[in-house]
């Protein structure tokens, strides 16, 4: 998909007149994988963030080893918006909390979603399995993007695919949640996957 088809102006505060379609997209993943950063990087409006400070109650519950400087955590959702396809498509992005104790919120946020982008951390791929299982239970199509942290190991994507037990047709990419361009391309990968799933079946000529 041509990069000219997505908006590169992060200060749009209105729906473009060209919009003909909209979709709800969930940005999911385990605790600390970069969902809030991702939504903030791509959103054309000031993102809505529902966060609370990490307190002593999180000790022994939330794993901060991969993000030792993290001081807040999403407790409801992050919300952002972005135009794609020459402003004809608008995506409403809903970032989920990462901790498994918020599973009821995950279920609510995925309701009505066209699809999900699952962020994963190569340092803790095991942490992605519960989110992936939930999406599969709810039959929500998804793509996976490995958020490339500076100190994270880099594995060949085919090994990551095997570790996450992904189906062959599930898109798998890399992105940097701090970089808008790479985040947008991760979304484009998801949208192309969803478009292919919803494309009409080819006509089959009847046999004589």
Automatic annotation (TrEMBL):
GO terms for molecular function: GTP binding; hydrolase activity. The keyword GTP-binding applies. InterPro entries: Gliding_Motility_GTPase (IPR052705), Gpn (IPR004130), P-loop_NTPase (IPR027417). Pfam families: ATP_bind_1. Keywords: GTP-binding, Hydrolase, Nucleotide-binding. CDD domains: Ras_like_GTPase (cd00882). Gene3D superfamilies: P-loop containing nucleotide triphosphate hydrolases. PANTHER family: ATP/GTP-BINDING PROTEIN-RELATED, GLIDING MOTILITY PROTEIN MGLA. Belongs to the GPN-loop GTPase family. This is ATP/GTP-binding protein. It comes from Streptomyces filipinensis.
């Amino acid at each position: 998909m041509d990069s000219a088809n997505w908006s590169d102006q992060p200060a749009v505060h209105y729906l473009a007149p060209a919009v003909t379609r909209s979709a709800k997209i969930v940005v999911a993943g385990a605790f600390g994988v970069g969902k809030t950063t991702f939504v903030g990087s791509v959103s054309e409006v000031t993102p809505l963030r529902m966060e609370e400070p990490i307190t002593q109650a999180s000790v022994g519950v939330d794993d901060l080893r991969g993000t030792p400087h993290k001081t807040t955590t999403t407790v409801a959702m992050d919300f952002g918006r972005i135009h794609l396809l020459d402003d004809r498509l608008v995506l409403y992005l809903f970032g989920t909390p990462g901790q498994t104790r918020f599973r009821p919120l995950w279920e609510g946020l995925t309701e009505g979603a066209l699809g999900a982008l699952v962020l994963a951390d190569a340092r803790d791929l095991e942490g992605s399995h519960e989110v992936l299982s939930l999406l599969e239970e709810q039959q929500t199509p998804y793509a996976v993007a490995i958020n490339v942290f500076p100190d994270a190991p880099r594995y060949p994507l085919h090994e990551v695919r095997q570790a996450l037990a992904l189906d062959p047709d599930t898109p798998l990419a890399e992105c940097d949640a701090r970089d808008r361009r790479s985040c947008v391309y991760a979304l484009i990968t998801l949208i192309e996957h969803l478009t292919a799933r919803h494309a009409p079946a080819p006509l089959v000529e009847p046999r004589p």
